[in-house]
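Deliverable D2.4 — example input (C-alpha cells):
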C-alpha cells in the first residue's frame, strides 16, 4: 500500500467533492484541520496515516447538509477507501472517526475512542475556535438565515443530540452551546494549549460585541 499516493488521491477526491460546499465546511476547512492534526499528532503516539485520512474525510458529507443523516459521510468514505484497496481495519477506524468527531450537543455518550480520533477531534475543534471559528459560526448562521443575537433567547446547555441538530437559535447562542465549551473538552496537551489561546480571543470578541450592541455583558445566569 502506497500511503503517500492514497493521501494524495484522497486530497484530490475531497477537494472535488467539497468544491461547492458552504464556506465553513469547505476544502479550506479540511486543509486547516489536516494542518492542525499533523501538528498535534507530532506529539502523540498515533498512526499518522489514519489521522490524515480521518482529517481529510471527517466532513466529506456533514450531516448538517444531509438532512441530519449521519450515515452518509462514513458510507462515502468507505466506498472511496475500498476502491483504493485500503485495509478493512483502517477503513473501520476512519469510519468511526467520522461518526464520532462531531460535537452534536456534547451530551451524547461516546462509545468509540482512539488516540487517532482524539487528534482529529482536537484538530476539528480548533477550527471552531478563535478568529476563524467566529467567522465560520457567523457564516453558517447567515447560511441558515439565523438572527445574530436576541437577548431574550437564552442558550440551551442541556440539549439532546436531536434538539442540537434541529436548533434555530441565534448565532451568538452557539458560542455558549458549543464554542466556549470546547477548551475544557480537548483531548491532547497540544490541543489544550492552542484551544486556550483561541478561547481567550472569543471571550474578548463577545465582550466587544455586547458593548457595541449596547449592553455591558450578557444577562444569562447559567
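Example output (designed residues):
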Amino acid at each position: 500500500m502506497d500511503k503517500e499516493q492514497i493521501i494524495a488521491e484522497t486530497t484530490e477526491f475531497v477537494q472535488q467533492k467539497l468544491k461547492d460546499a458552504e464556506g465553513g465546511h469547505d476544502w479550506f476547512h479540511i486543509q486547516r484541520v489536516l494542518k492542525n492534526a499533523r501538528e498535534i499528532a507530532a506529539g502523540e503516539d498515533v498512526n499518522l496515516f489514519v489521522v490524515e485520512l480521518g482529517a481529510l474525510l471527517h466532513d466529506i458529507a456533514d450531516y448538517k447538509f444531509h438532512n441530519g443523516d449521519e450515515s452518509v459521510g462514513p458510507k462515502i468514505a468507505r466506498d472511496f477507501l475500498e476502491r483504493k484497496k485500503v485495509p478493512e481495519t483502517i477503513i473501520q477506524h476512519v469510519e468511526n472517526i467520522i461518526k464520532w468527531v462531531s460535537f452534536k450537543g456534547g451530551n451524547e455518550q461516546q462509545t468509540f475512542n482512539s488516540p487517532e480520533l482524539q487528534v482529529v477531534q482536537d484538530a476539528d475543534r480548533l477550527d471552531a475556535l478563535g478568529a476563524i471559528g467566529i467567522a465560520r459560526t457567523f457564516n453558517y448562521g447567515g447560511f441558515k438565515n439565523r438572527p445574530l443575537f436576541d437577548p431574550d433567547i437564552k442558550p440551551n446547555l442541556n440539549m439532546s443530540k436531536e434538539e442540537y441538530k434541529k436548533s434555530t437559535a441565534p448565532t451568538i447562542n452557539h458560542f455558549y452551546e458549543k464554542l466556549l465549551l470546547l477548551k475544557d473538552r480537548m483531548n491532547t496537551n497540544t490541543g489544550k494549549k492552542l484551544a486556550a489561546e483561541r478561547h481567550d480571543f472569543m471571550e474578548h470578541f463577545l465582550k466587544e460585541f455586547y458593548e457595541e450592541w449596547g449592553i455591558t455583558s450578557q444577562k444569562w445566569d447559567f
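The two ends are 52 Å apart (CA to CA).
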